[in-house]
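## retry 2 of 3
previous attempt timed out at serialization; input unchanged, resubmitting
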Amino acid sequence: MILLIFHAKLVATRFRFVNSSVVPFVDGVIARIPQPFRDIALRHSELIKFAIVGGTTFLIDSGIFYTLKLSILESKPITAKIIAGVIAVIASYILNREWSFKNRGGREPAHEAALFFMISAIGVVISFIPLYISSYVFNLRVPEVSLATENIADFVSAYIIGNLLQMIFRFWTFRKFVFPEENGPIITEEHVRTAEEEEELGHS
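## retry succeeded, writing output
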């Protein structure tokens, strides 16, 4: 746990580009959403950012998982999933801390990180429960089924069902326990107007 926290702090600076590139882009997209959908997007901006981070870590997770599963851990899909999940969680903490929940806090950094990784570990367990059921309860593994069927079953169970379950669990628990206090406004109409003005200046 201490090693994960230390590693997360070391690589945090590599993800600070989010604040200077991704944030203005997302705000610009929100600025172009027609009413009344814009107000809905503003109210749920944390969830939108959390989903974008989730998509990013999904690519990290799935890339590592299939690299391991199709090579050195071919017969150990659960191990491959755990390794991929841990690496993705480190990236998730940095991106969520620096962007999704940037305006939330309320805890000491070490306590916050420890809670984040503990909750994320529970999320990893939740995410591979469907994979375990698919692999060892329904026995959707070679030679019982074809390799294509096995890979499809692994993808659906681990990355659709499993990730959906853990996303719901993690978003609620992060807001409730990891980042419990709002430190300031998240995104308001004023922020959107500022983003529009900056973009207009950039094109002038």
